[in-house]
Design brief:
globular; 33% helix; 405 residues; 6-stranded mixed sheet; 7-stranded mixed sheet
């Protein structure tokens, strides 16, 4: 039975266990009622960690950026190779019509999010660490706190397991320090175990490269997704699927058949000759990666409608957001999406606009989606590229514009 809305009466006598996500706080009425009744409680991550123990090869994909895409890439390869995996993905994955798939094999693939240290409830056979950046500073104290958290996550890999880690990071040695588990590295530095050379992009911006594994050339890898960040994601996916014994031909086919995930440089439609893309980027590093990928996509001028996500993140990275957005020709700002936070009046989208204006950027702010849509209809033209960007509901602007055309 599903209840919409949170109230104490939803916690009935028949409830044996309450599972709650990181977004739920102790003042939530259902949480409080479960505590009052003394009902056993688990976080979502704890439940997932317990489920993983039932599988022979649980894989956990961590990192500040790229988790959903890399988990989906892995999922596509495993599905294409008929391995019948169980999957838990942090976004909608079209081949399974959602984000969960229950298989019958020993393979379990899940995202491992660092927020509230959720991933410390996992004990994987294979741990992937894509990258590590300052984020979620409403929970973590600083970058040192985050580094320690990722180190502990890596340490929880099975003794006979494998850590697959970005070798280009400055914190790689810290994360691996003192760990006895085997590890392999991936990255664009040629010293990595898995690396890419001769990276190229086709007329649609899709990437391809020559794979080098453990110093040995392995031939060309073609992707059906854009950007150098996806080359990195694919290297991690290759390292993982080779480790579990899949042949490179099957991996290559799986990668080529992967067309991206929901809200990751997702083509939404066209307004005449204007292409509308939606992207989940909500951290300066992600914005830079997305806008860098957009450069290789055919267009005249690049428009970005950006909706900052949470007040704490906007405040913590204000100059970095402005710098990242400078890659666009035109920037339109929506109000900050609060998510789990309360507006204290300390920061707003106008602060981002002010920094962009100081750097001479063409930037506009509107308090409502209707005003943004009217502005876009009046100014975006020709073969321009329009990206709605952010982890909130900014996607609705592009969808409504396409619905009205």
């Amino acid at each position: 039975k599903i209840f919409y809305g949170q109230c104490a009466s939803n916690i009935e006598d028949s409830v044996d266990l309450v599972v709650y996500t990181a977004a739920i706080h102790p003042d939530n009425p259902e949480y409080a009622e479960a505590v009052r009744r003394g009902i056993p409680m688990l976080t979502r991550a704890e439940l997932l960690g317990q489920l993983m123990k039932n599988y022979q090869t649980p894989v956990a994909v961590s990192g500040t950026h790229g988790k959903t895409t890399t988990t989906s890439m892995l999922s596509q390869i495993l599905l294409q190779a008929d391995t019948d995996p169980t999957l838990s993905i942090g976004g909608i994955f079209k081949p399974i019509g959602g984000n969960i798939r229950v298989g019958k094999s020993g393979y379990f693939v899940t995202e491992a999010c660092e927020y509230t240290n959720s991933f410390l409830s996992f004990f994987p056979k294979i741990s992937i660490i894509l990258n590590m950046d300052a984020d979620h500073l409403d929970f973590f104290k600083d970058i040192e706190d985050i580094k320690n958290s990722f180190h502990k996550f890596a340490s929880q890999t099975a003794d006979d397991g494998l850590i697959i880690i970005n070798g280009d990071m400055e914190h790689t040695d810290f994360i691996l320090n003192g760990l006895a588990q085997k590890h392999v590295t991936f990255g664009l530095n040629p010293e990595n175990d898995y690396t890419a050379t001769d990276i190229a992009f086709d007329k649609e911006g899709n990437a391809s490269y020559n794979l080098v594994a453990h110093g040995e050339p392995k031939g060309r890898i073609a992707l059906n997704v854009k950007g150098c960040h996806n080359v990195m994601n694919s290297l991690a996916a290759i390292a993982c699927t080779e480790a579990i014994g899949l042949p490179l031909d099957a991996i290559r086919k799986g990668l080529l058949s992967f067309g991206g995930t929901h809200r990751r440089f997702e083509y939404k439609g066209s307004l005449g000759d204007v292409t509308v893309i939606d992207d989940y980027a909500h951290h300066p590093t992600e914005i830079r990666a997305t806008l860098s990928a957009a450069k290789d996509y055919p267009h005249d001028e690049l428009w970005v409608i950006f909706q900052p996500h949470t007040y704490t993140r906007t405040k913590a990275f204000l100059p970095e957001f402005a710098k990242a957005l400078e890659q666009a020709d035109h920037i339109v700002l929506a109000d900050i999406y609060a998510a789990r936070e309360v507006d204290t009046g300390e920061v707003s989208s106008k602060d981002v606009m002010k920094l962009l204006q100081e750097d001479g950027q063409d930037v506009h702010y509107f308090p409502s989606f209707e005003e943004i849509k009217d502005f876009v209809k009046a100014h975006v033209k020709g073969h321009d590229l329009l990206i709605t960007m952010g982890a909130g509901n900014v996607v609705e602007i592009g969808e409504e514009l396409l619905a009205e055309k």
